[in-house]
Amino acid sequence: MTAAQPEPVPSGQEVLSLRRGGPTVQRVVLGTRLRRLRESLDISRDAAASAIRASDAKLCRMELGRVGFKTRDVADLLTLYGVHDPDERQEFLDSARRANEPGWWRAYGDAYPSWFEQHLGLEEAASLIRTYEVQFVPGLLQTPEYAEAVVRLGPRVADPDAVERRVALRMSRQELLTRPDAPRLWVVVDEAALRRPLGGTEVMRAQLERLIEAAALPNVTLQVLPFHVGGHAAAGGPVTVLRFPVPDLPDIVYLEQLSSALYLDKPEEVDHYLAVMDRLSMVASPAAESVAFLERVLKEM
Question: Which residues of the chain are modeled with pLDDT < 70?
Answer without folding.
Answer: 1-21, 155-158, 230-236, 248
